[in-house]
Amino acid sequence: MKIFTLTTIVLVGVISYATAQSQPPVEEAPTESPSPGKCYVKCITPDEFQDETVTVIVEPEYSVLVTYPATYKTVEDRVIIKEASKELRYVPAVYETIEVPYISKEEAQNLKVIPASFGDDLEEVETYPMVGRWEYRILEDCPSVDKEDCMVACYVEYPSKSETVPTQTLVADASTAPIPIPEENATYKKQVVRTPARMEEIEIPAEYATITRQVVDQPARTEKEVVPAVTKTITKTVLVNKGGMTVWEEVDCELVGNINLLPILYELNSARLTPESEDIIDEHLLALMEDSPALRIEIMSHTDSRGSDDYNMSLSQQRAQSVVNYLVNKGISRNRLVAKGYGETRLINKCANGVDCPESMHHENRRTEFRIIQ
């Protein structure tokens, strides 16, 4: 068992009876009569508060003004209901139709192709050249046994060979000849203004009527009424004893210095606690914090790697916060609890993004843990 000593801020201080037998003495002991195997956490006592009832004015005293409307009398007036004016009457333009000539198809020309013409001719082509070579012969009736004694060498020439090939010669190359296309004319009808449009001015006289109207006979007035104040009794929390004293809290040795699994099962993509999960929190955490009122606990929630990193981080924070909210509703002070979501940053197996794993291995990563931080 380790002894945790801190300098500036004390987070966790733990000592067990078995350790105290082999380690140097500390400034103070958790208890004068320790039992073997017991562990203690050095904590800072929290502030103590109590509720008081006070009466506050929620609505101040104020005045209400009661108004009495004005009274009227009826008078008659002759008024203009339609002013004199002038009416402008539009006289449309008068048109006549004329015919306008135009070129419907412009003059142009097409091109006629005249093909090339050819003449006949003959061309002499040498098909085999004139050659000469030595030829050897053996004389007939050679009296010598060695036939080479009767060998004769003769140089023979062979004339060249040729062939007459019929050919064509270009008499005139291909060319074009113009074919004229005459111009075509037509006419269209057009309406032109014979008499332009104009405006005629007509006088319209004014119209009158007699109206009745109400005028103030007596002006409105007000009277003042006082409405009393409204009060409300509320309960406020006041500081009774300032905390900060160092105390020792006895805890289970297995919880000290370790990250402890809280076997909570959440619904898919949800941070809501099930009734089974609430029973687990009551068993593992609520009793511990009620028995040791100076302990502070960190709730750590994790997800598997499925889903985006940002979504998993947010979901794990919501799940850790749901445990904190549940304990607060059970009477545990919120300043004794810390909620921290780690998403998929602390996987306990190989099932990271893109790794094919069975559901049982993903389930190992979907866990909630707690540790004592003070």
UniProtKB/TrEMBL annotation:
Q: Which residues cross the membrane?
A: none
**Presence of the UniProt keyword Signal in the record:** yes
Q: Which Pfam families match?
A: OmpA
**For this UniProt entry, which residues form the secretion signal?**
1-20
- Spell out the PROSITE patterns in the cross-references: OMPA_2
- Indicate the principal place this protein occupies in or around the cell: membrane
The record's listing under InterPro entries reads: Bact_OuterMem_StrucFunc (IPR050330), OMP_bac (IPR006664), OmpA-like (IPR006665), OmpA-like_sf (IPR036737)
Record's subcellular location:
Cell outer membrane
- UniProt xrefs under Gene3D superfamilies: OmpA-like domain (3.30.1330.60)
Q: Which UniProt keywords apply?
A: Cell outer membrane, Membrane, Signal
In this chain the OmpA-like domain maps to: 253-374
| SUPFAM superfamilies, A to Z | OmpA-like (SSF103088)
Q: Cross-referenced PANTHER family, in alphabetical order?
A: LIPOPROTEIN YIAD-RELATED, STATOR ELEMENT OF FLAGELLAR MOTOR COMPLEX
UniProt protein name: OmpA family protein
Q: List the taxonomic lineage.
A: Bacteria, Pseudomonadati, Bacteroidota, Cytophagia, Cytophagales
